[in-house]
Amino acid sequence: MYEISADPARLDVPRIHAWLSTDAYWALGRTLAKQESAIAGSLNFGAYHVETGEQHAYARVVTDRATFAWLCDVYVAPAARGQGLGTSLVAAARDHLTPYGLRRILLATHDAHGVYARLGFEPLADPAKWMALGLQ
């Protein structure tokens, strides 16, 4: 059983950094300082085991809390995978953002399209109109 919280004081930052910098294809090699900066500028969610309080999953949202959000750094510890925790974590983040009336929430994934589709995310209707600056 897990509790999902957006309380930044509960985040296990060293654990999050270890997960992302060593096991997440999109963040390999990310420094602790860079992770701390990302956390400080974002809305963060953790999933905590109810009995132990240990953090087992993490998600980060970059948002202006008015028009736009980018869901990123979604990670579930290997031992906690396959139990629906990632889906619950993303649903909690989505639901937390609902009162802001955002126009869109974006994310990028290499291999979890099905997880996000179950929560209402869809491929971009017209990806040709989107552009990026930087590493792709």
Strand percent estimate: 15-25%
Q: Encode the helix/strand succession as letters.
A: EHHEEEHEH
Overall mean pLDDT stands at: 97
What overall geometry do the principal axes of the alpha carbons give? globular
> What's the total number of strands?
5
Indicate the structural class: alpha+beta
Characterize the largest beta sheet: strand count, sense, and whether it forms a barrel: 5 strands, mixed
Separation of the first and last Cα atoms: 37 Å
- Output the number of helix runs: 4
Helix content: 25-40%
Low-confidence runs: none
Radius of gyration: 15 Å
The strands making up the biggest β-sheet line up spatially as 1-2-3-4-5
Comma- or semicolon-separated keywords:
single chain, 136 residues, alpha+beta, five-stranded mixed β-sheet, 5 strands, globular
Task: Characterise this structure.
The chain has 136 residues and is of the alpha+beta class. Helices cover 28% and strands 24% of the residues. It has four helices and five strands. The protein has helices spanning 13-23, 32-40, 85-97, 113-117, and strands spanning 2-5, 43-49, 55-63, 68-76, 104-106. The chain has a five-stranded mixed sheet with strand order 1-2-3-4-5. It is globular. The model has no long low-confidence stretch (mean pLDDT 97).
